[in-house]
Design goal:
The complex is a heterodimer. By secondary structure, chain A is an alpha+beta fold. Chain A contains six helices and twelve strands. Classes of the chains: A alpha+beta, B alpha+beta. Chains A and B meet through α1 of A and β16, β18, β21 and β23 of B. Chain B: InterPro entries: PsdUridine_synth_cat_dom_sf, Pus10-like, Pus10-like_C, Pus10_N_euk.
Chain lengths: 206, 560
Amino acid sequence: MADHTVQESNDPEKQGKPEFLLPVEDEGELRKLLVPDPENLPATPSSAVETNFVSYFAPDFTKPGHDQYVYRHANGLCVVGLAPGHLAFKDEGGITAVDFNVGKSDRSGMKVTGKRKKNAQHFESNTAICKVNTKADSYIVRCCVKGSLLEVNDRLIKQPGLLNSSADREGYVAIMMPRPADWLKVKASLMSGEEYAKLREVRVLN
Amino acid sequence: MSGETEAVSLSGTPTTAELAAVSNEEETRILSDAIRSLPPQAVKDLLNSEVCIACILRLFGFREHFHFRSSISSSMLHSVLGESEHLEHYGILAGSKSGEELEVQQIVCRMCLGILQYLYRNDKGILVQKLSADGLAASIDEMIKQDGHEIDGFSLELSVPPVLLEHDNAVWSYMKKRYGQEVGIAEETSKCVSVKDALKLAITYPIENMLDVKSSSIPSSFRIRLTYSQTKPSSSMAKSPGETNGSCKRRKTGMMNDVRMSFSVLVSCSFCFCFFAADVNGVPVRSSNFSGDQKSSEPCNFPLEKVNEPYYLALVCCRTPIYIGGRYLKFSRNVSQTRWIIDDERKGESSVEEIIGSSILPACQGDSYKFHAAGREDIDVRMLGSGRPFMVEVQNARRVPSEAIIKETETKINSLEEKLVAVKNLKLEVNNGWGLMHEGESEKQKQYCSLVWISRTLEDEDVQTITASKDMKVLQRTPIRVLHRRSPLEREKIIHWMKVERVAGSSQYFLLHLCTQAGTYIKEFVHGDFGRTNPSIGSILGCRAEILQLDVTDVKMDGF
């Protein structure tokens, strides 16, 4: 389903009544509007991410094999995380731990408040957000986009396995808010999902 | 602009019958008698000091409307005060009843600065002299008719500079000292009728007459505002700024006009009246004790200063906002609730605000409108069932629409060709439905129906699990789609109940009916928003869940 985009209206078809009453005088009329026509339903609909975000990829970001993704929403916010081709996934046992204590501060400790996003730290695209550890190695995950760091996914601390199971959704790493000018600059260096899929021979949501 | 304003009618205003009973001759006789009853030396003293007859009468407590409506003619004044006096210069202050030529250089009363002489400067700075209160009422009448207002009542609001009170005090003190013994007022507190009260008495009747309405004790929504001031009124006083296409953009900080608001609080206690008035800069200055015994911080002395120019008068006739409320339904997935334009491009086909507002505005013949609703839905979400409560606020309506006209407007909106929006229960809101509506937005439960897809087959167990949960708590981090303009917070919301309705012919699609606390993000509850809403349908069923469409089926609110 799209965030504020056009949706085709479905043809109504009368279905069996549910066990409870809908709160309106003409229940029949309302039901006609609500129930979809199964013929019009796609087998696999596009996901919320596919509909509302444009996917970009940064293969070998600052280091070979450090592939990251940037999902950009129409409102300018960017969700960053590990792309399917990242080396960390190739290590046996996958990712075992995530540590946000990098560089000067613990990224999971920051508190951004208010509509104006006070206290959000401004970072460069190569600033480190966190470290992901596998049995063998550890890898730095970086901002990818220059801007304010709004949020880190602190769930990864207790559930690092999210990166293994769904790095492209629940396993996201952080949310960045770049300035429009900064975004345009970095956009030029990113590639589309299609190109990335070809490059790494993996499937990506596009 | 500073002054005291008062929108409440005085008690003791004569009824229309009583007023009508006083004929012209009787009026002259009453005025003459009144003047005769005062110590002649006091009257001459005041006239000599350039105080007009109306101010003389009100100083001594005369408070009938005809004392201030028009002045006694110079010939009558002559006869009252005696032939032997030189009355040429007195005559000018007496004014004229009808047709007599007035001197171009009018002497302005030093006490009321022309207000009760019906002498003022208009908004273009031109000096205007009305012969009586009727003349001023006629100007008001003309203004109202020109603007096309249909009214059945009015509230008169007068604003005069606070310095006039000091004039009253100064003159009263002087009178007490010099003539107190004669008039028996040596021990008394001031009986002086204020300029405002006198003016209100004088013009209420002629206005009522000309407009064929009554000024009622309950403030009417139609305001006639007279503002007297020292300096030229800025042009922004009459209009509110920044309106486009008849619809006001919602302002975050509320309604702020360029007009500087004058501040006045009338506090009455058992011993005295205290007026707190603001000076030109809106800063509370001083209080004057009406009894005149206390000295004000800047004492005025008798005789008062010479006045060369009368006050400016700004006349504004307008109606305070009226509210038309009801419930709306939205059938389109391409219509936003309010006008939505980004980079000069409109999002969506139209807006609920414009569809409803553009029909209501002409029905009220107003200047502009504002749209308020109890909550909102996304552009691609339909609003069905009982509908969402809303109110349209109409600025300066030229007429208050009757029930018939409102019914007509409702039908008109519902018969529009495109059938994007419908309205129900459209009516004029008399009591402040405002509070109700905001309550509706933040407190009332809402009911939804969403079309959900999951990444595996829906089992009976799943249906059980979902249906069984009652008042389930979910923690929602601010959804990414609104995070750019809302605070990053974690909000706990309650899903009161859920029901699953399978879609025939599909194993992975189903209709999810749910009833939630106000402020719950439904879309995020279904797809999880990167796991930032917990629990979500996906997390409950242990698979991926997506939402294809959403409809609001009920906004649980009474009274609309």
